[in-house]
């Protein structure tokens, strides 16, 4: 723990901790790599986008490995790479994600099932595979089992999008997955915590892509927050950094909303 030089407040200190952050090339993942490094952690970033992922990691002093999180056979290798590089694994941020853009009535059955299968494989199965591989490693950390897993869900897990059934369902699955993982670890007596961060509309690549398809979307989703703005990815990363450190060992299975109050206001206001 250390004091913030300007404010005198307590700043989470992650020195000595090793982390994996998926989807590190852009948006919330990139901001998280920057934040964890700034807090003193050693970080292995992964992304399907090798070029952008490597540029970001080189810039901030993180390691990088290309990974498609839906390639379930690859997860043990990724965790092994982190342990070989850092000697331990303390933090996993399951951040990589995608939208499918398909509503329940869209397209042919073939198109619908392809879109559904892909978004589930990346957002939900990829997150489960990451949790499973990380726990197997965190159990054997030097000094005893310990770790913090942070899964990135979405406010669409609670208020789903009619325009993206697969995305919304996958993120609702991430919330339930998180609670199952958290309580299993606790029942096993493992000091491995698992929590979800639930971002609202955040200024990132996913939202910019959606804005191209639906002009005006960014302003519309910004207006769902009583703050009437989008989140900066660094704000979401700050919540992730809090869950990554050991300030609150009793916090597991939680949903941490970072939505500017969007889900906390009566829809009439
Ligand atoms: N931006 C928002 O408004 C918002 C809101 C709620 C939740 N989220 C969630 O936040 C997370 C990060 O998204 P973002 O907003 O930063 O978007 P982003 O598009 O900026 O970043 C997503 C990153 O994930 C990577 N990725 C995609 N599929 C992958 C795969 N199969 N394997 C590995 N990497 C993959 C992409 O290459 C990209 O670098 C996602 O899980 C997203 O669902 C975002």
Q: Could you give the order of strands across the largest sheet?
A: 5-4-3-6-7-8-9
The CATH topology is given as Rossmann fold
User: Portion of residues in helices?
Assistant: 40-55%
CATH class: Alpha Beta
CATH superfamily: NAD(P)-binding Rossmann-like Domain
Helix and strand content put the structural class at alpha/beta
Q: Which shape, going by the Cα principal axes?
A: globular
Q: Could you spell the SSE succession in H and E letters?
A: EEEHEHEHEHEHEHHHE
Number of helical segments? Answer: 8
Number of domains: 1
Strand content of the residues, in percent?
15-25%
Give the end-to-end Cα distance, rounded to a whole number of Å: 41 Å
The ligands bound in this entry are:
nicotinamide-adenine-dinucleotide
CATH architecture: 3-Layer(aba) Sandwich
Oligomerization category of the chains in this entry: single chain
Query: What number is the mean pLDDT?
Result: 95
List keywords for this structure.
15% strand, two-stranded antiparallel ribbon, alpha/beta, 269 residues, binds nicotinamide-adenine-dinucleotide, 7-stranded parallel beta sheet, 43% helix, 8 helices
Textual characterization of the structure:
The chain has eight helices and nine strands. With 269 residues, the chain is of the alpha/beta class. The chain has a single domain, classed as Rossmann fold. A seven-stranded parallel beta sheet has the order 5-4-3-6-7-8-9, sandwiched between helices. Strands 1-2 form a two-stranded antiparallel sheet. A hairpin with a 6-residue loop joins strand 1 and strand 2. Helix 1 crosses helix 8, helix 3 runs parallel beside helix 4 and helix 4 runs parallel beside helix 5. The longest helix is centred in the middle third of the chain and has 30 residues. It starts with a strand and ends in an 11-residue tail after the last strand. The mean pLDDT is 95. The site of nicotinamide-adenine-dinucleotide has 28 residues, from helix 1 and helix 6.
């Amino acid at each position: 723990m250390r004091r913030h030089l300007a404010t005198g407040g307590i700043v989470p200190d992650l020195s000595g901790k090793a982390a994996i952050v998926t989807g590190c090339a852009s948006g919330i993942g990139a901001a998280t790599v920057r934040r964890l490094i700034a807090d003193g952690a050693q970080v292995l970033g992964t992304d399907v986008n090798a070029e952008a992922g490597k540029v970001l990691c080189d810039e901030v002093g993180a390691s990088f490995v290309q990974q498609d999180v839906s390639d379930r056979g690859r997860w043990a290798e990724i965790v092994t790479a982190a342990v070989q590089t850092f000697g331990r694994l303390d933090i996993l941020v399951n951040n990589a994600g995608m939208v499918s853009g398909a509503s329940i009535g869209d397209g042919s059955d073939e198109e619908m099932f392809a879109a559904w299968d892909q978004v589930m494989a990346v957002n939900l199965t990829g997150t489960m595979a990451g949790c499973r591989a990380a726990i197997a490693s965190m159990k054997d950390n030097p000094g005893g089992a310990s770790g913090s897993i942070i899964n990135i869900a979405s406010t669409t897990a609670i208020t789903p999008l009619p325009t993206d059934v697969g995305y919304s369902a996958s993120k609702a699955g991430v919330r339930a997955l998180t609670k199952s993982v958290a309580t299993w670890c606790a029942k096993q007596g493992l000091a491995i915590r698992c929590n979800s961060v639930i971002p609202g509309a955040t200024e990132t690549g996913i939202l910019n892509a959606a804005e191209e398809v639906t002009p005006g979307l960014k302003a519309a989703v910004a207006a769902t927050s009583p703050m009437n703005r989008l989140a900066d990815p660094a704000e979401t990363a700050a919540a992730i950094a809090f869950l990554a450190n050991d300030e609150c060992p009793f916090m597991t299975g939680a949903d941490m909303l970072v939505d500017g109050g969007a889900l906390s206001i009566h829809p009439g206001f």
